[in-house]
Amino acid sequence: MPTTIGVEHFLIVSTLLFTLGVLGVLISRNIIIMFMSVELMLNAASLAFIAFSRLHADASGQVFVFLALAVAAAEAAVGLALIITLYRARGTIDSSAFSIMKW
After folding, report:
1. Among the listed residues 9, 76, 70, the one whose alpha carbon sits nearest the alpha carbon of residue 36
2. Which of 39, 30, 63 is CA-nearest to residue 49?
3. If you average pLDDT over every residue of the chain, what do you get?
4. Could you tell me which residues come within 8 angstroms of residue 14 by beta carbon, excluding any fewer than 6 positions away?
5. In terms of CB atoms within 10 Å, which end of the chain has fewer, N or C?
6. Is residue 103 part of a domain?
7. Is 14 among the domain residues?
């Protein structure tokens, strides 16, 4: 008996991914891990958009995800450049070393 994957399954996976991203941001002290956790939350939101797009048989959610992924790629490039600059300036990527944003 074949079973179909419903929208609720996608939303459950999306919720789990978003929760893992939030935990990664809150628990981690490493800036790169925090950055990856934010990307994970963005991908979880994109998965929810695609699930609702499939539910309503409308491609507008998929177009929105495509644009969001293009922005995320640019954000990743800028974010990694900032992380490299911070590492060169301070010699660490531990977020507790950046509590005071003075140079």
Report:
1. 76
2. 63
3. 87
4. 44, 45, 47, 48, 51
5. N
6. no
7. yes
Q: What pLDDT does residue 102 have?
A: 59
Tokens 């140079």 locate to: 103
Q: Per the domain annotation, does 65 fall within a domain?
A: yes
Give dist(CA 88, CA 80) in Å, integer. 12
Reduced to 3 states (helix: H, G, I; strand: E, B; else coil), residue 1 is coil
59, two tokens = 């491609």
Domain assignment present for 89: yes
User: How does pLDDT run across 17-54, given as a tens digit for each residue?
Assistant: 999 999 999 998 888 898 899 999 999 999 999 998 98
Tally of domains within the chain: 1
Task: Output the domain CATH number for residue 61.
Answer: 1.10.287.3510
Q: What is the span of the domain harbouring residue 59?
A: 8-98
Distance set, CA 101 to CA 68, 80, 90 (Å) = 29, 18, 11
What's the whole-model pTM score?
0.80
